[in-house]
What we know:
This protein is of the alpha+beta class. It contains four helices and eight strands. Strands 1, 2, 3, 4, 5, 6, 7 and 8 form an eight-stranded antiparallel β-sheet that branches.
Amino acid sequence: VTGRRLPRSFYARAADLVAPDLLGHRLVRRSSNGLRLAARIVEAEAYAPDDPASHAFRGQTPRNSCMFGEAGHLYVYFTYGMHFCMNAVTGRIGTGSAVLLRAGEPVEGIEAMAANRGRDGLLELCSGPAKWTQAFGVGRDLNCADLVDGEDIWIERGSRPGEVAVGPRVGVTSGAEVDWRFMVAGDPFVSRKRGGRA
DNA sequence: CATATGATCCGCT
DNA sequence: GCGGATCATATGA
């Protein structure tokens, strides 16, 4: 059953408004063999313009250029020599803001995700930003992919969470004072279980 | 050209 | 709880 996609206008707002609103919706990936993978978003972090923790903070570069493009596209980056992470680009064009998709609850294509990850256990498939990209087969080729009109990856409307917990973003060295990490309160699929208040 | 470091994960202790 | 894996990117010489 295919759901309704979130429209461009959903993404074209400030990252700290988009991030909590993404919780409960479903990230859907159509792999090259036509298989559908889906996970319910349970954790997301906002990265704003003029945010020292953001990749966009020091201006536009080839790596982060998608962040400065149209909202509703995917920003994929490679880090730690072995991991990819993915973001939804937000805000007005040219501002450089995005929401990091940190964790999801696997919903469709669980066997394929386990194969992509090289391990099974529902809790080990999408419970972290780099785990999730690996489970979904998201790499460089999906950088700048259009989540609104593209055919490779998109976000469909899902059930909104009852309660949203917030906390400081994970792994940031500066900008730790703002609570821009948003998660479904008490959800077992959230990464790094510690931290987070209602 | 050289170097430092990272929006992480995993296995071991 | 800790450290290693492993390299693209950015920055400075």
